[in-house]
Specification:
alpha/beta; Helix Hairpins; 4 domains; Rossmann fold
Length: about 650
């Protein structure tokens, strides 16, 4: 049976429809109601005065005046009934005025809120676009603030997210007010879906310098890559912009890579496979305490950073010289190699790589100030020929079997000496899920022991103490999943283990190198109170790398060279294997001594107050008075070097 609606339901529905049409419809309804009120009261007032035909127009007019101006009732004359009716008209006038003012006020407020949401297209060129607003955004902004500080013109950054743009603006304004480097960067926020082509038009993508996709969800990242690529490829000859994105999980890398390439040799994507990158960093730092601080400085715009230079005043006197010679000429920088068209990044034996006209010079320096060089290479002092100190056999304990563990285990044998041993500890379920059975054969080929320790509850004091007593490791590597889901619990477990290890070290008075992968920067600050070892923050590393590549696309190739197991990598090794100890030498002499072993000196790490201090990259070569600065190295001091292989 067909349902029948009551008159009240129909009237209520019509009223709701009318009210939903906005402010204009509400004002029209209020005016219509007022017209009806005035006519009805005008007729009743003329009847009350006893002359309907002669006075109906006049009484209607007076009713309208009392309604529009409620304050003029003091001059009213007539019968008591007439004055009473005009009093009611005055009260209605108060209601009418209040409602009308309220509607107008609401309309203005809505318009102001709409304007505050900044829906227009940003008029900018050469800017950086950040798609996604989360905790990582502020790391990226900090780096961009630092990079833009010494630019001649004010730089622009556009942020888009489906969050409210007013809230984004407020948070960024608060962050900028606390930053000492934000003065040369203007930030605009726009609300929109980061993979909606129409919304992305607000960001002027085709005129941008680079687009950073800042999402922790790989599928959302892939959709954003696809949307950005479609916009950039509409008129490919009109834009040089490109997209920089991090893919957190290896199984999603192929889809993201395909989304960023239009199949016409016009690749619009620089993709960072974070799982593989973090695995390489974790392996490096697990055997070389302090190396995470080196990577953090190199990946950020704070302190020293990489530059690929193509036009400097000093280049004419550097052409034709080897990297070894150039490093004895540069006053405040270190040359690593060259970028050559068609060959890419060339970092090799510093005596064999020459800087030719047309090459770009890869340097490490404090800022992108003009490169300063002497007219001729400095003459180094004579040093005895030394040999790098090989690393001793060691035992490495990996706590946690995660998706990244397999990548770490594949890289680890390259950095362990023959006769060393590696143990992986976790539950049977996680070990079976993340570690393949044939990984042990890789270690056997290198003469390294491999063992899996299955435990029921990994993150307890009893389990940690049992693992320490049984294996007596020299280094510990704690791995995380890198997922937002469960990140808090994961960090809590890591902090608990760090506390147990701190207690164990104090009781047994043992030296122990600890590398820990955390998810949250605040947790990392707490962890440094417990231990002074290395900490890898997944999202932090991702943000730093994306920002560097967004500023200089070619630097991605440099990072690939430095992080892969083949070719030249960054190591921290004993200084006594390269330079004489106990006597002062200048840095040119130290660099020359390292070059003789086909390596490049990029930093030092010396003892301070009985313990190794933080690594110092690109240390000063001259004193304030212009004389050569002297360094005295001890037996425990270290050098940060670029070398083809770890000294085993």
């Amino acid at each position: 049976m067909k349902k029948k609606f009551t008159f009240r339901q129909k009237l209520s529905f019509k009223f709701d429809m009318l009210m939903s049409k906005g402010v204009v419809s509400k004002v029209i309804m209020l005016i219509a109601l007022t017209v009806v009120f005035v006519l009805v009261f005008g007729i009743l007032a003329s009847i009350a005065l006893g002359d309907f035909k002669g006075m109906v127009f006049w009484t209607s007019w007076k009713t309208l005046m009392y309604t529009l101006d409620p304050g003029n009732l003091d001059g009213a004359e007539g019968t008591v009934l007439y004055i009473g009716m005009m009093f009611v008209a005055t009260l209605y006038g108060l209601f009418f005025t209040a409602v009308l003012i309220g509607l107008i006020n609401d309309a203005i407020s809505q318009k102001m809120d709409s304007l505050a949401k900044s829906r227009s297209t940003v008029i900018a060129e050469g800017h950086t676009v950040i798609l996604g607003f989360n905790e990582t955004t502020f790391i990226i902004l900090h780096e961009l603030f630092e990079a833009n500080l010494n630019q001649k013109e004010k730089q622009t950054v556009i942020i888009m997210d489906d969050a409210d743009s007013v809230e984004m603006n407020e948070k960024i304004a608060e962050f900028s007010s606390r930053s000492r480097t934000a003065s040369n960067t203007k930030v605009y926020c726009r609300s929109g879906v980061i993979y909606d082509v129409d919304d992305l038009e607000k960001c002027s993508l085709t005129l941008s310098r680079a687009i950073i996709i800042n999402s922790s969800d790989d599928f959302e990242t892939t959709k954003a890559i696809l949307a950005c690529t479609s916009i950039l490829n509409e008129n490919p000859e009109d834009t040089e912009s490109y997209t920089v994105a991090v893919v957190y999980h290896a199984e999603n890398e192929d889809a993201a890579r395909i989304a960023g390439n239009d199949g016409k040799n016009n690749d619009r994507l620089v993709m960072l496979p974070l799982q593989n990158t973090l695995a390489r960093i974790a392996v490096h730092t697990s055997r070389q305490p302090g190396l995470s601080k080196v990577f953090t400085e190199l990946f950020s715009f704070d302190g020293n950073e990489f530059y690929i230079l193509d036009n400097e005043l000093c280049f004419p006197r550097l052409y034709g010289r080897s990297i070894e010679e150039i490093n004895r000429m540069l006053k405040a920088a270190v040359a690593l190699g060259v970028f050559r068209e068609g060959a890419g990044v060339l970092i090799d034996d510093p005596s064999s790589v020459t800087f030719q006209k047309g090459d770009r010079l890869i340097v490490l320096q404090d800022d992108d100030d003009p490169l300063l060089a002497e007219d001729a290479p400095a003459e180094p002092a004579k040093c005895p020929e030394l040999k790098a100190i090989p690393t001793e056999r060691s035992v490495c304990l990996v706590i946690g079997a995660k998706s990244i563990t397999e990548d770490v285990l594949i890289e680890e044998p390259e950095y362990l000496s023959e006769g060393s041993k590696l143990i992986v500890a976790d539950t049977h379920e996680l070990v079976s899920k993340h570690i393949t059975k044939d990984i042990a054969s890789v270690y056997a080929e290198h003469g390294i022991g491999f063992e899996i320790e299955e435990v029921d509850d990994l993150y307890t004091r009893a389990t940690v103490n049992r693992l320490m007593e049984r294996h007596r490791p020299d280094s510990i590597l704690m791995l995380g999943s890198g997922n937002d889901e469960g990140a808090r619990e994961e960090d809590e477990n890591m902090l608990k283990v760090l506390l147990y290890l701190k207690e164990y070290k104090e009781i047994h008075n043992c030296r122990l190198s600890i590398t820990c992968q955390l998810n949250n920067v605040l947790d990392q600050k707490l962890a440094t109170v417990i231990s002074s070892d290395d900490f890898i923050i997944s999202k932090h590393i991702a943000a730093l790398l994306m920002t560097q590549i967004a500023q200089t696309r070619k630097v991605r190739q440099l990072f690939d060279v430095l992080l892969q197991s083949e070719g030249y990598e960054i190591y921290i090794e004993k200084a006594k294997g390269y330079v004489p100890t106990g006597r002062p030498i200048d840095l040119y002499t130290a660099m020359n001594a390292v070059s003789k072993q086909k390596k490049i000196l990029i930093g030092i790490r010396q003892m301070q107050d009985g313990r190794l201090g933080d690594p110092v990259l690109n240390p000063r070569k001259y004193n304030e008075d212009g004389t050569l600065k002297q360094y005295t190295f001890g037996d425990e001091d270290c050098l940060v070097i670029l070398a083809e292989e770890f000294s085993k």
